[in-house]
Amino acid sequence: MTEAAAAHAGAKKLGAVLLEVENVSLSFGAVQALTDVGFAIREREILAIIGPNGAGKTTMLNLLSGWYGPDKGTITYQGIRRPRMRPHEAAALGIGRTFQNVALFKRMSTLDNIMTGRNLKMKASFLDHALYWGRAEAEETRHRAQVERIIDFLEIEAIRKVPVGRLPYGLQKRVELARALAAEPTLLLLDEPMAGMNSEEKEDMCRYVLDVNDEFGTTICLIEHDMGVVMDISDRVVVLDYGRKIADGPPERVRKDPTVISAYLGVTHSPA
Amino acid sequence: MEILTAAFLGPIADMIAEPLFLLEVMIGGVLTGVMYSLVALGFVLIFKASGVFNFAQGIMVLFAALTLVGLMERGVPIWLALAITIAVMVVLAMAIERIVLRPLVNQADITLFMATIGLTFFLEGFGEILWGSNVKKLDIGIPDRSVDVGGVLINTFDVNAAVIAAVLVAVLAVLFQRTKIGRALRAVADDHQAALSVGISLTSIWVIVWAVAGIVALVAGIMWGGKSGVQFSLSLIALKALPVLILGGLTSVPGAIVGGLIIGVGEKVAEVFWGPYIGGAIENWFAYVIAVAFLWFRPQGLFGERIIERV
Amino acid sequence: MLYRESGHFRTTYRADQAIFPIVQDRWVVAAVVAFAFVVVPVIADEYWLQAILIPTVIFALAAIGLNILTGYAGQLSLGTGGFMAVGAYATYKLTTFLPEVNILVHILVSGVFAAAVGILFGIPSLRIKGFYLAVATLAAQFFLMWIFNRVPWFYNYNPNGTITAPPRTLFGIVVTGPQASAEVRYLVCLAILVLFAYLAKNLVRSNTGRGWMAIRDMDVAAEIIGIRPLRTKLLAFAISSYYCGVAGALYMFLYLQSVETLAFGIDVSFLVLFMIIIGGLGSIMGSILGAAFIVVVPILLTNIPQLLAIPISVELAKHIERMIFGGLIIFFLIVEPLGLARLWQIVKEKLRLWPFPY
């Protein structure tokens, strides 16, 4: 276990159930993406969703951010049943998100990208913006201060003004995380945040994720393929395979589950 | 009340009163539609294969027709003139590829679009200098008569044009779907860099496509020029073809045909039956309105490729 | 060495967010604006004002409008001419209906009509994108042309179908009609341009602008983080059309004096689109530079044969001019696809290091 994870484990108290997914099914035409999936996430928990490619993990996240509505089943968030959330409703409810293929605004600078994360908190109208002096400027400066704290936290000061399209992949992922954090989410959905990173970058990212969970109490649900990361930082693991849930429990237990091993993890073969 | 009459009752009553006339108008619309499709085809080819929205297609139609007529006026026999014009269009394609397309590889779509508009201006000026700006008659031996078929007047020229267009479409469809070149064309349309990385020569593909589009433009030019003379308003045909293009889908050859038919018929019927009530000249915008209405329900056109965005 | 940021530390976020964070920039822009207001009307002659300066200023305004829609919000539009026409005709109807009210008020109000039309024709943008949308906006262009031609109420039943600017005054000085001097008209247009450019710059650097750019770059992601696509796009259409409407009103009242609908045809739409592509998409400064370029180049081309004393017929000159214009556009797109604004940025970057090479 890494240092950060060791310090983190054992010191946390989980809260009430924040999100509950019950018997959710979703299909796209003939493709059954999710079948009868159910799990719960508690406040301040870090939940990892793992499984082979095509298992429906990203679809699950898209469901939670309101991009699709389930064909069957319910999603209960913050105690209230939400039959069909639209994306901006999900965002307004404090559900933040990063994406598998970095979905940043490529032609905008890092700073601007992160500032878009604050858009739901900015109340000035376009007329205020046109005049700028006064209300709009005060609001802009106030939110800029918040965003700078996040930039500080994620150590990306040097690339503030660079258009993100020019940044290397690892930094783009970090900027995306910053944008998601800027919205001060209650539930943060991370889709493969460590993809394409070397071990040093992964260490950094893990540290950020854990710090976010520690300092802000953000509940985190992440999709991840790197089992080392999953074992280290998650409190619980849900395993999906072909759209069905095949395991749900603490990482140690899931790792030894034979169904999971045959579907996804595999075994190391000793040399013959 | 008069508005209601104008909008609905009047035209529909007219249509019911003279069903044969309606049929005639519709057939005329079908045939005009086929002509639109010919022009739209050129757009589709280039867009499908190089991802470029070639605004210069209209002027290419005119340029091809002008060259053919210009040669024939100087006494060149028609078959030789045709051959030379085709050669000219191929050379033009090579020049465009070298001077305009190659330096702009992988630029934004809108940049390439603007480049084709620049090309349009260039070809307009060049064409006028080479061949002059008077109207020219183009006679390639297709009879232009109105024939009475069971009480409905049909134009022989239009029918010929429709047949030629059908043949052209069939040939192109086979070219795209069945041949190695067709596959290469589709690869290039999808992603220039990826196509390069598998060894497809962008240069050759582009020359081929623009040359074929040039030949399609020539056919369209002959059809339109034969019907109404070769003059500069011919380049405005492109603007008529645009609604056909978006209705059918920018990437679909059958779409260009179906779109052409829908627009051709819709436009003619609207002009003849609604026009007198609203004040005429609705041809200018009606096609666009039809296209937008269809697009609302299918934003990629009737047969266009669905734009799927993965998050 | 003269032009650099080192030594000027911005200590507040306010300072960092300023339109011109570099001090020298502020001085240069202030000087240029002062020059434009004070010196130019004195030294420029009638021809320069009428043929070059006034149209540049008016088209710069329209270009800013289109840049907001296409450059910042990413919605390709070919309906600019139509929206300008709405502004012109609205002003005409308003001022002939209420001649006592200040013409400036009418012009600014007519922009609202243009904005309303813009919102209406912007609705398809929710579902239709890219070139499909561009062609759809042509529906707006052609329909508006048709309606202003067909419905005589718009041109007050004038038998030859044109509308003519009636003489109006502003603070006692004649601004429209044959008595209005070119200097006065130029100053009014310039004042409106400077004000509106400032407002536009504020809009694009604020949350509104970020929303537009987010929709442009990846509307799916924008929606997921809470930006409302329809609202954002329609706002872009509204504000863009407002600018184009005002520009159209100025075009008619303070420049041409008398127009028929053809003056706002599809050629104008393409012209303004050229301006923002050559000037630079997503740049207010670029819109102004692009407008200047597109206005000046044809005039240069027309005058070169005279300057070089080459005897060619007017017809031939016109054709050659067209060829060169087309060729220049292609050349420019190859050399600097990001436009004049980018060239200007490169110049500034070199200036930062001057006199050192790197």
Q: Give the % helix of chain A.
A: 25-40%
Residue windows where pLDDT falls under 50 for at least 5 positions of chain B: none
Number of domains of chain B: 1
What is the H/E order of chain B?
HHHHHEEHHHHHHH
Query: Any idea of the CATH class of chain B?
Result: Mainly Alpha
How would you characterize this protein structure?
The complex is a heterotrimer of chains A (272), B (311) and C (358). Chain A is built from eleven helices and ten strands. Chain A has 272 residues and is an alpha/beta fold. In chain A, helix 4 packs parallel to helix 7 and helix 6 packs across helix 7 (169-182). The radius of gyration of chain A is 19 Å and the shape is globular. The two termini of chain A are 30 Å apart. The mean pLDDT of chain A is 88. With 311 residues, chain B is mostly helical. Chain B has one domain (2-297): ABC transporter involved in vitamin B12 uptake, BtuC (Orthogonal Bundle), CATH 1.10.3470. Chain B is built from twelve helices and two strands; from the N terminus they run αααααββααααααα. Chain B has helices at 2-17, 19-50, 57-73, 78-101, 109-131, 156-178, 180-190, 192-197, 202-228, 237-248, 253-278, 283-297; strands at 146-149, 152-155. In chain B, strands 1-2 form a two-stranded antiparallel ribbon. In chain B, helix 4 packs across helix 9 (202-228). Chain B is globular and about 65 Å long. In chain B, 48% of the residues are buried. Chain C has a domain at 43-264. Chain C is built from 13 helices and four strands. In chain C, the strands form two sheets. A two-stranded antiparallel ribbon of chain C has the order 1-4. Chain C has a two-stranded antiparallel ribbon with strand order 2-3. In chain C, strand 2 and strand 3 (173-174) form a beta hairpin. In chain C, helix 3 (46-72) crosses helix 10 (266-279). The radius of gyration of chain C is 21 Å and the shape is globular. The mean pLDDT of chain C is 88.
